[in-house]
Amino acid sequence: MQFPLPKGGNGSGAVPKDNPNGHAGALNEGLQFASAFSTLFTFLAYVFPILGAYIADTRLGRFKTILLGVTIGAVAHVIMIGGAAPSLLKAGKGLAPFIISFFTLAIGAGIFKPNVAPTVIDQYTNQRPAIKTLKTGEKVIIDPERTIQRVMLIFYAMINVGAFFAIATTYTEKYVGFWLSFLLPGIVYFLLPFLLLGVYKRLVIKKPNGSELTNFFKIVWASLKYNKFQVWKKDYWAVATPSKLAERGIQVTWTDRAVLDVQRTFEACVIFLYFPIYNINDGGVGAVQSNQGASMTNNGAPTDLLGNFNPLTIIAVAPILSYGVYPLLARYGIKFGPIRRMTFGFMLAAISGAIGAIVQWRVYETSPCGYEASTCDDVSPINIWWQIPNVALGAISELFCNVTAYEMAYARSPPHLKSVVMSLFLFTTALSSALGEILIPAIVDPHLIWVWAGPAIALFAQTIVFWIRHHKLDDDVYMLEQETPTQSQAQLTQTTDLEPGQEKVVGDGEKA
């Protein structure tokens, strides 16, 4: 989107072989256009999950909704590949098919996004703490929190195995053309329907329950109505309980437990409101990271190469956390609950944003064009590999923030609202994109240092508030399906066999 077709190139977006520091391009719409539309794409891809969750929870169920989203995405890939044909790009007619495919892909992705993670965790059916007697006679507790934590780490790592293949597309766009860059992921994508149908009979499939979702919205409305929209009132949710409504002469079909489910669901969603500022620190705003790379010496590397090292970092670090750090902390009785993990991740992201600002400052200081580096034909002598610390810390922060948020979206929502709550978490990324759109006018030289530094400072301040307000949630019960609202009252169930992948939690304080 940002750069024109390279002079002397092959007409498909690739650079000529004698210009290794050149930029692949085709549409020549500039940095602000590229930032605005890439941000808009992200916004749509994380708004449509609300629709995808509604369809799944009330109509089709999660699995069929995933199939629907995948099918829409496949159509988008076909249009995108065809729209990158050299003849269209040379004729200056590549923008329309690209934008159509761009937004169609966002819709397809948005429909299946909120349903994948809940479907994965649904396969783990024993979601309460359970006592297991080992062959030695020792009794230990099977901890669902650690099991789901590991499941989500593996799930997130697998997402990034797929994302890591994008490195191949950064090279093909620069040296072959965009048609091949779009075709490579398209080939993999077209296999998805066959994969899904192949595993269908082996999956635990949850059916939609539209009536429960209807009750959810009725409880929310009753709480708003009878509190006169004063959402800050003490015991806010109590007015929606059947007994309180009966005092008003109103009979309802839901139970006290249903009201508690809604209350805890919104508690989880409040946690998600801290993510918009976090997200704009993870890789910067819009296309600013790719633009920074384009202003640096790359010695033949694509300008957006380093952004694609994000998944490589996640693939490398996820097993270290899952099989090394977290078990070690548990062995020594160090509690590293979801709020502590997210607080640590937020701090890493703030440091990442600060490093991005420092690198941008050095680019300005060393560029032949000074503080007009983004539009300069020459590049700074600073090597593009100096983006690695920013990329790596941002990627590691995702394992503490995004993975934990996936866990909480599932664990702290009732069965009939898992996809809806997941979509509300994903919607925070859409809010980040909306915030990014507001910042688009500032994404110009010579202000790019503050495009990095401003969000980093905001995130640092927000993290302090986050810890002060929510650190006590680490002591709350983990799974919402528990019959009781506090950890001290939670009951253990007896079991004789472990399911595959279940953790054995052994410690002096945990022996039955």
TrEMBL record:
Residues 501-512 have a biased composition (Basic and acidic residues). It is a multi-pass membrane protein. It is found in: Membrane. The keyword Cytoplasm does not apply. This is Predicted protein. The chain crosses the membrane at residues 33-54, 66-89, 95-112, 153-172, 178-200, 344-364, 384-408, 420-443, 449-468. Residues 488-512 are annotated as: Disordered. Belongs to the major facilitator superfamily. Proton-dependent oligopeptide transporter (POT/PTR) (TC 2.A.17) family. InterPro entries: MFS_trans_sf (IPR036259), POT_fam (IPR000109). Keywords: Membrane, Transmembrane, Transmembrane helix. The keyword Transmembrane helix applies. It comes from Hypocrea jecorina (strain QM6a). SUPFAM superfamilies: MFS general substrate transporter. It holds the Pfam family PTR2. GO terms for molecular function: transmembrane transporter activity. GO terms for cellular component: membrane. Its main location: membrane. Residues 488-497 have a biased composition (Polar residues).
